[in-house]
User: Fold this.
Amino acid sequence: MTALTAALTQNRVHHAFLFAGTRGVGKTTLARLLAKALNCDRGVSAEPCSKCDACIAVDEGRYIDLIEVDAASRTRVDDTRELLDNVQYAPTMGRFKVYLIDEVHMLSGHSFNALLKTLEEPPAHVKFLLATTDPQKLPPTILSRCLQFNLRALQVIEIVSQMEKILKSEAVEFDLDALNTLARAAAGSMRDGLSLLDQAIAFGSGTVAGGAIRDMLGMIETRQVEQLIRALAEADVAALLDVVEALRERALDYRLVLDDLLVSLHDICLYQIAPNAVDAKALDAGFIAELSELMTPEDVQLFYQIGLLGKADLPLAPDPATGFEMALLRMLLFRPDASNGEEDTSEESETLPVKRSPVRVAPDKKRSQSDSVPKSLNPAEPSVWARLVGDAALEGVSRELAMNLSPQTYESGTLTVGLSSALQHLDKSTRRQEVEKKIGVLLGEEAFALQVVKASHTSDAATPVVVQAKRTEEAKQQAYNKLMQDPVVQDIIDRFDATVVPDSVQTGQKGG
Ligand SMILES: [Zn+2]
Assistant:
């Protein structure tokens, strides 16, 4: 804008300006200010007086030499021609005739041609002020003849400070949380922000407070945003569904709820990368710090992405509440393993496969290790031997030895086992004794002994290593099949064109 100020001060003002920017950022306000600057009774200046007849008339929208046209409602070529026919006549009162054409990109092709002719040979007493939200749609011939100013969308803090100024001057009580909420809802438009502020003052009967504003906008309470994020971070389905249920009872705009969630995730992400840069407005700073520990940066990114997609999907969902709930469930389902090792073997995990992510399907409990081995068992069935080895509290190389023995025959307390010639180094008498002792305890056979013979091919030997690998593979396949039958998972696969990563399916059994 310094270029414009200098031009005005030197009275060398370009004949055509283009103000580009999103709605409500002050394009027409600026154009009117320029009209005043050009026609102020006190002379062309960057600071019109706002007190003379010309300035007041412009402010009140009745200045005869300021011709405002809304191209969005006036696109016919005749209209533009009629308008431009009058360009040649001198201004009635002021120094310049100022044409303000709003949403100029809406003019038809013919109208553009008429405008272009005038711009090519403009009379000295005419200035054109063009405004548009979409400069891309203007023909280059027009663009090249205009001095272009791009007005950026306003930041939340700029809208907030303007609101603060107004409320203080009008002695209206307010809290900053409320102003931040309003400014965010204004999406970069000062005009929208101020109109929301008007509504807020009326809604709060004279005060502007956070809770009331959230109600007015159909927004979720800050406390509930925190509950949602915590439930997601802790993969706590029950808590998540509680919040969803509470939200259902209020007539909320779920787009705004998702927006709130996204803003908070953004704060958490920012905190993870640059803690000092967070100017946490919506949420408590302590909460942000705590949650940024509970979630990995990848989790935050994933939740954010799914939230965005969920917003886009809302109009397609059977109803907004369902669409919202589904977005949250996706966040849980697609979250990478949180690597907090505890396994959930409680009963609920069977009916609620979304308990933790990646989806864990409870193991077949009858087969889990806690069952004791019946005494009559014959350790020369390979699966019995594998289970005995799994249950014996063997460690280190003794365990490795036992894991690689393939049972052959069992007679009067002596189990003949094969050991691959490549693994003979594992067979040391102390280790063998440890295996004999611990397996003997499980079998209730004090004199249990091993007779180790050479096995030529490890590949077909039924060692516990082989048996367990096979069993794990089967369990995984079973869990995968079960998972693929789940309607929620099917829906996600359909919607996202997703695939379930087979190795992300865990059976809940501790490996090895
Ligand atoms: Zn003036």
Summary: DSSP finds 22 helices and ten strands in the chain. Residues 112 and 139 are 8 Å apart (CA to CA).
